[in-house]
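TEACHING EXERCISE
Course module: macromolecular assemblies
Task: Read the component lines below, then compare them to the predicted structure of the full complex.
Student: A.B.
Group: 4
Components provided:
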Amino acid sequence: MTNESGENPIQTEGDIVTCRKLIRNVTSAAGFGMTDVTRIVTAVSELARNVYVHSGSEGVMRWQILDKPGQIGIQLEFEDFGVGIPDINQAVEAGFTTAGSMGMGLSGVKRLMDSMTIKSDVDMGTTVSITKWGRAK
Amino acid sequence: MKSMEHSHSKYLSNFDNWAEQKRFVDFTDKDVEFLKKLHPFAVEYADTFVEKLYSHLMTFSETKRFLGDEKTLMRLKLAQKSYFIDLTSGEYGKEYFNSRIKVGIVHQRIGLSPRIYMSTYCYYMQLIIPHIYGNPAFDADTAKGIFSALYKIINLDQELAISAYIHATDEVISRQTEEILEMSTPVIQIWEGVVAAPIIGMLDSSRTQQFMERLLETIVTTNSPVALIDITGVPQIDTATAQHLIDTINAVKLLGSQVIITGVRPVIAQTLVHLGIDLSGIVTRPTMASGLKVALDKLSIKVIDSSKE
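Instructor-supplied answer key:
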């Protein structure tokens, strides 16, 4: 049950659907409540779409179930090999976009999750890591 | 059925590419000559081979169920025999090409997996090999040439059948995808002046396009001032989905009608707030029923419970 982990490629728009479905199943099985599952899956949808839109071809989502006494958690990592983010602080500002979208994605994900870290090198790619904790059932 | 015929004919038009495929496996006139040398033996032993093959197939429940009654079996054996004889006939033109394509298409339709097809070919090879290498009519070099030619033509056969099989499966998938897309975004008139559109599943860009077109069209044809978009069946809303919804709502506004979003579940409301999506200018209701009430109020329609009069 614990220390479960896995990964899923993000190369086509269909992969976004697969990621959502996978994480919905994984988090439900791990014992997250309905509200948390929806939050996590929304964040996954957001970040998987970012990878798909910005990376061009290859991207990957990695997930791992975490466990602490009385708590369950999930850590997710979204890696792409796209153009990178020159200014991370600007990227997480609500309303900032380079893709003609709402620009609420990263700032929204930060609020949906307990923590979010972004590592990015221009022209090398971006890795976004997020973590969410919930009460164990 | 119709689309299967269609895919069949579409695939057949690729016959020109087959010459290239022959070149790829280095199938030359020399190979044709070698295969012709084997032909008399193929004709002589065809019946025996087919009998052996079918008694082998009869021992597996998976293949046995395809063989059917006595009459079907007879027909299949005859078809198998001519298929086998054609293999060494020396004629590898359009007719041959078509017959191999058809195998893939038919197998896909009846649900006979490529695994069975490939294994059956392997069994054939085992039956044929002794007639190549153990045959006093062929010296060592001829036997080697025949074997190599046979291997090539079988490879060409398999490529055609498997490609046709995959092609037929792709056809089915793309047809079903279209059907699902059509089915999953219905727009219906539920009252004079009110249309409703329940969305089931995620709203991605291709669906949004279809959905928006249909919604706008129905609003115009039914002359409806109000449209209810019900999101009860949407598992989660991310910023891309929200953007699609807002675009749709703006398009409806341009027609002079109003959208009411219904079926906003508590979890969805919470995530929308967290995402920072502003829906303040949009009328939303938790259920389709309460949304309909708003719509009727707007149209100054009163629904009276006649039992309470």
